[in-house]
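Progress against Task 2.4 (sequence-to-structure conversion) is shown through the following example record, which the project officer requested during the mid-term review.
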Amino acid sequence: LQVPRAPSQPSASSESRRFTNKHSKKALKASLTLGILLGMFFVAWLPFFITNMTQAVCGCVPASFFDVLTWLGYCNSTMNPIIYPLFMRDFKRAMGKYLPCCRRSGEPRPSAISLSMRNSNSGPRAATSLKNVL
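Structure tokens generated for the chain above:
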């Protein structure tokens, strides 16, 4: 028994290939960023957690060593705002848009009214009542 095959479809156009290639590059970059962030998190905090458990069991960890490992974890937390703009273009754009120190010259500054309207979801909309919702 042979199953009849559907007629073969034409090969994907160059536009769809470009679309797929663009998204695979974005996925690869996102995976790389996530890998770097998680790797740094484990390198910074894993010694702290292991030392913390060791301290609970035997009490043989010097306080100064424990402090050093705690500050290593704190340093990891300070690295995140540096890593995100390095690897994520959207994050960099958002920082440039809202922080004056990161704004490029010539970019318009968002007004306080537009920011509050955007954040409060209180833009123009049709009046709704409980009767209309139910």
